[in-house]
Specification:
Layout: H1 2-11, H2 15-42, H3 52-64, H4 71-79, H5 81-90, H6 107-123, H7 129-139, H8 144-156
Helix pairs in contact: 3-5, 6-7
């Protein structure tokens, strides 16, 4: 019996199975890319409608001049509460979307969130993805392992310098 098992294993060529696997993974990655493209098209469109637009019209210039995470910034966020409450309900890439915060998010939510943090940091006079990562690590209670994954992703895109 052992000789026959060895013979069939020795005669097995994994190339077809490997190509089937490779092609299946390519299809699944393409599905992820399409989902991210759709998120890009829909990202933050709720900011263009009431009740968000009017408040963002007033507060965005003020936010640009503030330091992300500062007491001044937090005060402005509290003034924006009606718009932000609506925004968070409409956009799953915000930890505030769910009472479970980050733990309720998908990998696609987290990737969109990271892109949002990068772009938002570029809007602040002293903003940076490094500062956003630092502030949001504690702000949202991101565990260290997930935080390293997020930071490593930002580094892979060249947004964060190598250590």
């Amino acid at each position: 019996m052992r000789g026959r098992l060895r013979k069939s294993v020795v005669n097995y060529n994994s190339e077809d199975d490997t190509w089937n696997h490779i092609n299946r993974v390519r299809v699944l990655i393409s599905d992820c890319i399409e989902a991210l493209k759709l998120r890009g098209k829909c990202h933050d469109v709720s900011k263009l409608m009431a009740p968000e637009k009017e408040i963002f019209d007033e507060m965005t210039p003020k936010l640009k001049a503030s330091t992300y995470g500062s007491d001044e910034y937090k005060k402005m966020l509290s003034e924006m509460k009606p718009a932000l409450d609506h925004h968070y309900v409409a956009n799953s890439h915000h930890p505030e979307h769910s009472p479970d915060g980050i733990a309720a998010m998908t990998l696609l939510d987290i990737l969109e969130m990271l892109c949002d943090w990068k772009a938002a940091g570029e809007r602040h006079a002293n903003g940076s993805i490094e500062n956003s990562l630092k502030v949001n690590h504690s702000r949202f209670g991101i565990n260290d392992q997930l935080f390293r994954v997020i930071e490593n992703t930002a580094r892979e895109f060249g947004w964060v310098k190598n250590k």
